[in-house]
Amino acid sequence: MLDKIKAMLSPRALAYFSSLDESLLVKPSAWSDDAAHNKTIRLLTRVVQGCVVVALRYRSLSCSEPCDTL
């Protein structure tokens, strides 16, 4: 199935998705609609690919208290 999907992608898209394998780790979780966070996700993807250090505050699924990075 994955080969069929890859065959439909342009070389540029294949290169982009290949670079994500080296940048992001996505753990399995319940499906959610992340459309409201699309801008943030794209920004963080560019930050990771550019090796930029950022500080984040977020709420995890397992803890109701805000978490900070760095």
Describe the structure.
- By secondary structure, the protein is mostly helical.
- The chain has one domain.
- Helix content is 46%, strand content 6%.
- It has three helices and two strands.
- The chain has helices spanning 2-8, 11-23, 38-49, and strands spanning 57-58, 67-68.
- Strands 1-2 form a two-stranded antiparallel ribbon.
- Strand 1 and strand 2 (67-68) form a beta hairpin.
- It is extended, with a radius of gyration of 15 Å.
H/E element sequence: HHHEE
Main-sheet strand order equals 1-2
Sum up the overall morphology in one term.
extended
Residue windows where pLDDT falls under 50 for at least 5 positions: none
Radius of gyration: 15 Å
The count of strands amounts to 2
What helical percentage do the residues reach? 40-55%
SSE class: mainly alpha
Q: How much is the average pLDDT?
A: 81
The total domain count is 1
Individual helix count: 3
The CA-CA distance between the termini, in Å, is 40 Å
- Assess the beta-strand content as a share of residues: 5-15%
How would you characterize the largest beta sheet? Answer: 2 strands, antiparallel
